[in-house]
Amino acid sequence: MDFNDSPEEAEFRRQVRAWLAENTSEFSAYDYDTMSDEEEVALCRRWVARKAEAGYAAMRLPRAFGGMDATPMQCVIYAQEEARYKLPFNYFGITLGMAVPTLLTFASEEYKAALLPRVLSGEHIWCQLFSEPSAGSDLANLRTRAEKEGEEWVINGQKVWTTGAHLADYGILVARSNPELPKHKGLTYFFLDMKSPGVEVRPITQIDGGAEFNEVYFSDVRIPDSQRLGEVCEGWKVAMTTLMFERQAAGEQSLGLIDFEDLFRTVLGIDLTDGPAIEDSQVREKLVDWYLIQEGLKYFGYRQLTALSAGRPPGPEASLGKLLEARGAQAAAGFATDLMGYEGIIKDPALAPCGGAHQSAVLQAPGIRIAGGTDEILRNTLAEKVLGLPPEARNDKALPFNQIM
Ligand SMILES: Cc1cc2nc3c(=O)[nH]c(=O)nc-3n(C[C@H](O)[C@H](O)[C@H](O)COP(=O)(O)OP(=O)(O)OC[C@H]3O[C@@H](n4cnc5c(N)ncnc54)[C@H](O)[C@@H]3O)c2cc1C
Fold first, then answer.
1. pLDDT, tens digit only, all 405 positions of the chain
2. Number of structural domains in the chain
3. Whose CA is nearest to atom 40 of ligand 1?
4. Quick check: is 104 in a domain?
């Protein structure tokens, strides 16, 4: 394991630090806890445009498309340095991490030239229209239909949990074009204008009061064949490429969900009925647990970075980091709010201890344990691909989709 930057990495870090120091002050001055979503989205658009001017918005892209041909390690260094600043929430995660690299790989030169600059200017947000009510972990089970009519495809069906669909200008979509083929083989991949007639976006209100997800309904939505990405019925391969880009993007950013120092500060401020919480042996034992998890994850992260720095992409063992961090963060936030007693149920940042950060974390953690692979799916990946245990039975894999049920 190598903890140090190579001379080239250190020089790149120096450049990034200098650029961030010069360009963040305007954005760090805002109070993001109290501003409306609309204001934060507007600031995020400006921040993306600012980063794009220097090539930092989509670093992996070729220079011709506004990137800097960056290595994975340079992306990690940028993410580490940017994380030191208070900046608007990143509403472009799916756009830049999934949609843009998929377009770059599969779209025509005309579409790339027309669409990519509008992302980098902060104008266009994209969403990912994959999951459906009966297709999440088993994505190949999806039922939204795509039927060819002349030079167009007609889309009918429903997607769900579509992050940011209410903000999105465009979406990447997987639909079933041939139900007579086995489930992974009858899918086709498209992108579409979210303002097309027949697209209806319905927000889903979350337990924390936010509404970042949506149901999206398609009623006779028409997509030109030129907006097909990949071959007809080869949509599974394109979708796997998108998910590979998602994993890459996730691997370049630490989730940073467990903040031991913050937890420690919270405990220092709490009094139990028989004295300060920090003097309670059970509380101290728990704190040691969170410290060990955080440190274990930090060194696991260094191991991944050492591999990345040597040019080895993240393998299936990367699932371990997300599994431990998301579960650990949920338990740590639950522990902090339990210790707060009645104050643990107050979420208003103006009234709650520590600005309600632990309360928010309790409510958001279940979603983090599901997004990008549920705990159980990550365990399956670790069992099959890392430990070499026998794979799950997948009896429906070779059956025509329309004969599965
Ligand atoms: C924060 C968040 C953001 C999201 N954003 C998007 C988005 O932008 N676009 C999009 O398309 N989707 C999005 N999703 C949806 C996400 O991809 C799915 O929720 C996820 O794939 C799980 O699918 P599901 O909800 O249908 O649950 P299911 O797959 O039905 O799972 C239900 C339960 O069964 C378990 N399970 C399922 N299969 C197995 C198995 N083989 N072995 C053992 N246990 C199993 C699961 O672990 C889970 O506990 C988002 C979800 C979240 C939480």
1. 667 889 999 999 999 999 999 999 999 999 887 889 999 999 999 999 999 999 999 999 999 998 999 998 899 899 999 999 999 999 999 999 999 999 999 999 999 999 999 999 999 999 999 999 999 999 999 999 999 999 999 999 999 999 999 999 999 999 999 999 999 999 999 999 999 999 999 999 988 888 899 999 999 999 999 999 999 999 999 999 999 898 888 777 766 667 888 889 999 999 999 999 999 999 999 999 989 988 888 888 888 888 877 877 778 888 888 898 888 889 999 999 999 998 899 988 888 888 888 998 899 889 999 998 999 999 999 999 999 999 988 889 899 999 986
2. 3
3. 377
4. no
Write the DSSP symbol of residue 146. E
Q: Is 22 a catalytic residue?
A: no
Nearest by Cα to 379 from 331, 317, 304: 317
From 246, 285, 295, 343, active-site residue: 246
121 alpha carbon – ligand 1 mean position (Å): 32
Same domain, 153 and 228: yes
Task: Indicate if ligand 1 lies below 6 Å from the C-beta of 144.
Answer: no
User: Is the CB of 376 inside a 6 Å radius of any atom of ligand 1?
Assistant: yes
Segments forming the whole domain that contains residue 267: 254-386
Assigned domain for 106 exists: no
Q: Which DSSP category does 36 fall into?
A: -
The domain that holds 197 is classified in CATH as 2.40.110.10
- In ligand 1, the atom with minimum distance to the C-alpha of 380 is 42
Distance CA 370, CA 206 (A): 14
In the Cβ-directed half-sphere of 317, how many Cα atoms lie within 13 Å? Answer: 13
Task: Let me know if residue 249 belongs to a domain.
Answer: no
166 and 72, same domain (yes or no): no
Residue nearest to atom 12 of ligand 1 (CA): 131
């465009």: which residue's tokens? 170
